[in-house]
Description:
Radius of gyration: 23 Å
Number of strands: 15
Number of domains: 2
CATH class of the largest domain: Alpha Beta
Structural class: alpha+beta
Order of helices and strands: HHEEHEEEEHHEEHHEEEEHEEEHHH
Largest sheet: 8 strands, mixed
Shape: globular
CATH architecture of the largest domain: 2-Layer Sandwich
CATH topology of the largest domain: Ribosomal Protein S5, domain 2
Amino acid sequence: MGKIQVLPPNIANKIAAGEVVERPASVVKELVENALDAGATHITVVISRAGKELIQVIDDGEGIPADEVELALERHATSKISTAEDLDRIGTLGFRGEALPSIASVSRFELKTRVRESEVGVLLRVDGGVIREKETVAAQPGTTVSVKNLFFNTPARRNFLRADSTEFNHIVKWMKRFFLAYPEVHFVLIHNGEELFHLPPGSLDERIVQVFGKAFYEGLAHFREELNDIVLEGYTCRPDQARGTAQNQFIFLNRRAIVNRSLNHAIQQGYGNLLERSRYPQYIMFLTIPPHLVDVNVHPTKMEVRFSNERAMYHLFLSGVRRAVQAQPGGVPSFTMKREHPSREEVQQHFRSSSGAAFPSPPSTPPSRPGDATSGQPPSPASPSQISFEYRPLPETPPKEPDASSLQSLSRGGPA
């Protein structure tokens, strides 16, 4: 056995890149998240050969000060958190300070940035994690990051990339998540010189039509569920609009795309037996929840999260979907449903601790065939009209819908 030693930064960054940068779509995700965190209102993504040759993200955000550009490429260097307590109130998409150094360590990397207070910008060139050049240049306010020859210095990783069509599909999948979560942002996506998406800012409804078409939008039902400070709002498809594949399934938590098999199962169960076997619903859902009630620091990709009360979240999704699919057909039925619930203090007290743990281990995955969710304070929608309806049991009874008293028990940590 060799002598224990601290790994050089270039090797450590390559190891870290293995967790953060899985494929070109991972780079697109991290760079667009940085742009959104910087307050960008216009984001252009330029791709060549599915990202294997070039990934370029251009934004009009706040930019990086010239004296902090090199620091931005240091591991765990971030402006988004500064104390351990900040992890309980994360309000940005990124916060780990790993993305840029990880990407720069496995590519030929260029960063051009300018803050609005400065008359000029700065350009930084990096090869495989080694800074080669830094110079002052003319630049528009904002940041442009160019990633060329991804995995040029890790041939094994490059050889494991799939065909261009497959890799680009992963990029489009991520871009659609951003399109939906940020309809107020102007997005442009270009691949091999062809402009595939040009989406001006607008409402969520307009963005859904822009991305998926009018027929898709007209097959959706709108719903809204509230539990004190927790709001679940979005769209789920009518049963006859379900598909044979688990595509077009989006869950956003405080505008962050997430994957959660338990929530997928709740959504599926909300349809009862109204879905044929091997049919999957299409949905776009936004969960807005106080940051301290959820842990997003579970995995470097930040797509996996842990709720302090998984059962309450499960029933919130189950109830919302069930009511949406039972609403009157035709158009996009819309309604708001509010119940009497425990006080904010009672809910927060339970979410803060369960059996003495701030974030208890999540329950085992329910037996199901959940779809792969692709996975928020959503854009403020128009105030939904309130409608009344009579509860009618589904032909096949899914898990019992909780009433107000059982939800109170859930919020206090009682039995489900």
